[in-house]
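Residues pack. One example:


***
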Amino acid sequence: MDKRTYAQPAFTFAAIALALACLPAVAATPTAAAATSPATSPLAASTPAPTAKATAAAPSRTANTPASARRQCSEVQSGPVIRLSVGKSHRYRPVSPVARIVMGNPEGADAKSGAASVNALLLGPNEIYLQARSQGSTNILMLGRDGRCTMLDVAVGADPTPLQGAIDTMLPGLSGKVQVTPAAGSLILSGTVRDATQVDKLVQLAGAFVGSTGKVINMLGVEDPQQVMLEVKVAEVSKTVLDKLGVNITAKISSGDWSYNVLSDFLSNGKALINGTHSSGNRSVTVDGQKDDGLVKILAEPTVMALSGHQGSFLAGGKILIPVSESNQIGGTTITLEEKEFGVGLSFTPTVLEGGKINLAVTPEVSELSREGVSLVSNSGASVLPLITTRRANTTVQLRDGQSFAIGGLVKNNVTTNISAFPFLGELPILGALFRSTSFQTDKSELLFVVTPRLVKPLDGDYKLPTDNYIPPNRAQLMLGGKLEGTLNNAPAAGQN
């Protein structure tokens, strides 16, 4: 009896020692150590094999679920935000020992739902292994052995390391000045650069890394933004030629004397070249002949200023209200008024390059109200809507400070011919001219833009105005001498009028 009693604990102790060697985490747990001690109870030592197998089959339950962790959290506090990159791993060390971790993301989470997919593994009480699989955000609840819980927020975004390395390699002058921060599927560029040219290079470089699925958020600042002033001259020459020739014969038989008027009202309003009437018979012969030449010159010289990389615009004209029909909620139609601008307009975007060069994207435009309009027939009657004729050009050039370029070729040529004739008689050769009227009108116009960009710098603090040298006259100079400006000798002292 005694021999069997002492042989059993020896075998049990050897089996438990082997199990503890395979599972060091179990030995570190107070609960596991108390359960496997041979001095605790001989009854526990009497069944060695089931205890060792059960401990080896479920190590996570024994190691990660102590008695304190099975209770509710006595206190929940917020931890730091952990930022991860897709495909990268991270090792986090908690401040206090952790018994168990609980992930906040659902199973099969992806970037479309906004929840990040993160693999988390508790390596030890003070070490957690994290691996990011997809972009988004999630959280991790850490249950401490002391009953306190900590909530960690995990944000997974694009990997900024390749872009940061490309900036350091391709743009070495910006190394350390530009920071790349991931935000979900986007990359945020922050820092301060020299000019707008470097901003464009960085945005284009970042766009190649994010691809079509993400976007680049530009939060870069410029040390000394350059201002560009644009001097524009707009000239339009419009020529109109009008020729009229026709015969109008009217007759009514009656009695009376004849009276003739030659060049009647021709120079005043152009009604007729020759007009003859008979007072009793009211017979009249009218010969129309008119020739008009018109020349119009329109000139505008706007000056617009804008920062490098920003857009500037100018408009000299007006606005017109155009009725627009819209369907309402009850199935009817509501008429609203929409504003349309017309006149001489200009929009441009300058970019100052290295060496003082200016890259300029210019869009000049000239629009005017048409005489004809657009006819609209509705149930309430016919109406004529205004029609706007627009001529626009869009170009990009590269100039130096003070150089000019011209945009021309915007030519309009309208030819209008009207013939009114008596049937058959108006088609006769030679005599047919007496039975028809002809109107021929030609409208020609050409538009020219001359653009000159200039680099502008702010004035110094000691600038002078033209009125600084003005000296008001005293009473004697004004009343007796009729002087509007005084002299230095008669200038009033400081504080006197």
Summary: The radius of gyration is 47 Å. The chain has five domains: 2-64, 75-157, 161-222, 227-458, 464-497. The first helix runs from residue 2 to 22.
